[in-house]
Write a structure and sequence with these properties.
By secondary structure, the protein is α+β, with helices and mostly antiparallel strands. The chain contains twelve helices and 14 strands. It has helices at residues 15-21, 44-47, 61-65, 69-81, 94-109, 112-115, 170-195, 202-206, 276-281, 320-326, 337-346, 353-358; strands at residues 58-60, 84-88, 129-131, 146-153, 211-219, 231-234, 240-244, 252-256, 259-262, 270-274, 291-293, 301-309, 315-316, 335-336. The strands form three sheets. Strands 1-2-10-7-12-5-4-3 form an eight-stranded mixed sheet. Strands 6-11-8-9 form a four-stranded antiparallel sheet, with no helix packed on it. A two-stranded antiparallel sheet has the order 13-14. A hairpin with a 2-residue loop joins strand 8 and strand 9. The radius of gyration is 19 Å and the shape is globular. It starts with 14 loop residues before the first helix and ends in a 5-residue tail after the last helix. The relative contact order is 0.18. Mean pLDDT is 89; it is low at 1-7 and 45-51. It binds N-oxalylglycine and nickel (II) ion (NI). N-oxalylglycine (OGA) is lined by residues 215, 217, 231, 236, 243, 245, 251-252, 291, 293, 303, 305. The site of N-oxalylglycine has 12 residues, from strand 5, strand 11 and strand 12.
Length: 363
Amino acid sequence: MSSLDMASLPVEPNVQELVRSNPLKIPEKYLLKNIDQQDKPKSIANTSHDFSSDDIPIIDFSLLSSGHAEELNKLDLACKEWGFFQLVNHGVAREVLQGMKDGSAKFFELPLEEKNKISMSTAKGTREGYGQASVATEEQTLDWSDALVLNLYPSQIRNLEYWPTTPRGFKEAIEAYASEVKRVGEEILRSLSLTMGMEKDVLLGLHQDLAAALRINYIPPCSMPDKVLGLSAHADAGTITVLMQEDNVIGLQIRNQGQWVSVKPIPNSFVVNVGDALEIWSNGKYKSIEHRAVTNESKARMSYASFIFPHVDVEIEPFDHILESSGTIQMYKKVKYGDYLIQCLKRKMEGKEHTQNAKLGST
Ligand code: OGA
Ligand code: NI
């Protein structure tokens, strides 16, 4: 079984085509319904001056990898208090980042027939390829975005038939980006192993064959940014997510103390967040925070999310030493990671429902 083994329902036409054919028309199924006042996406103009955005922790990767105690402490606090941080000095060459951005921009500009050659809807029971990655039920409000999803690691699970052959060189650019993100991700897992009170390689080792998948999101401009979401509120199911944002289009928002806070891009940095697997392992000490992407009235936005997660056969449960040292009760059940992932993909759930269901005492 592949790790992303759940077909998405086909949706026609895709969002990029909708905007191209009529920029002012927004079909009913994309419009947000019954949304609380405080959750309404505000237009970017109102959120870009959000003072809290500057409080999102910034972690220096080069210090982490040299075992800098103060930086490890900052990482620990960031995962406890925010579940999110910006990562600078990661050492990934600009050309590698730019290669990914340029290739993706060209790919999404291709005619629909060309992109549909690797369409998710023709995929045999897998959720790889080009399409709408988050569609699970007919009734749900749809996200104002298209995506290209690919399995990256372990390399044996790559389905090369979904890897784009146009534009030329894009495949190689993805490959180069993937191996760099893996290197960075592994190093973060080593640091997290230390901050969780274990030997450096324990957490990474527990993943067995480390898995990673890539989702390139394309969020077209939207004439009613306060009525739709590019990506609806969700938490990521993996251990950590390493995200590259566009340098000059704001879109990502995270929930912090009940408020939606925009994550202002820092050029050439990554945004890293705690996923559900890490929340479970840490017994909730580290939090997999809800986040979403809002749309922009005039600009398209692309983002590149790499989800790093354990092998599907790995059983995850809160670490004994964390339960003992914190004196807290076990909050989450033991679960086979592949089973957890299937639950996540089968039902698109709002926000934090998946980890709620993983808690002891839930049915
Ligand atoms: C995701 C995600 C955020 C963004 O793909 O899971 O949360 O900024 N992306 O696009
Ligand atoms: Ni996400």
